[in-house]
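Predicting holo structure, uracil bound.
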Amino acid sequence: MSEQNRRAVFLDEMGLGPVWSQRTGAPQLLDEPVIADDSAESGVHMPNIRVDESMSSAWTDSAVQTAATAPQAALATTSATSVTEVTQMDWAQLKSVVAACTKCDLCKSRTQTVFGVGDPKARWLFVGEGPGRNEDFQGEPFVGPAGKLLDNMFAAMALKRGDNTYIANIVKCRPTDAAKGDRPPAAEEMDACLPYLERQIALIKPTIIIALGKTAALALLKLDPATPVSSLRGTVHRHADVPVIVTYHPAYLLRKPKDKSKAWADLCLAMQSYAGSASK
Ligand code: URA
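Done. Tokens:
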């Protein structure tokens, strides 16, 4: 199967099959398929996209899953690690400190921490909200249905999990509600965990960061929680000097497949920004 056909299959998997066609005679973004001109959702170059509040938490209005009886992780005891110490850590130290972290109450209910997965020298960093039930069991980010969609988004961009990509989350332990369902992380949980992500970013030195959903976007960009997220898509933001693109969380896209075309526009903006940054 040709590369183009393979990508068409992935776009089809994303529910974008009928929407996309290869535009001839128009500038291409890294030879990626672009939205056909006749698409109702067209607008690859959409700097002023308006969105609804659906970029809010990945877990909002999602079916609450009841967790099976998970084995409680054995919590290693470590002395409290200061933010300054974290900023000096190498990859191995950071991993082991995260695995033993007890900085917030999420450690009490986790099966294990979910550090992140991928190429430690990746140019592309994707940041989600926090592990869900599947990730808590498997110790890897985005392994459930949302992860499958994320993999398809990668494929549509000619990217692959683990190959020049890294996936991390704002928090490394699964936040659960009273019914043992997934919930978004609380402010104090994000504050406790963010130094780890900051260190991951410093070690990876990505060319571009993709914020998957509201929680990731607001935490990475250090915006007030009251910030309307509708204004965040379609713009190249910065985390320190690294470009940040905000798009929908894959779990949201599973609930609102119609917005996959907008997510594709975001990914096209990301590819455009990446191409600009990588050529400097
Ligand atoms: N949702 C996230 O935000 N992160 C994961 O790792 C899984 C689901």
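The chain is about 35% helix and 10% strand.
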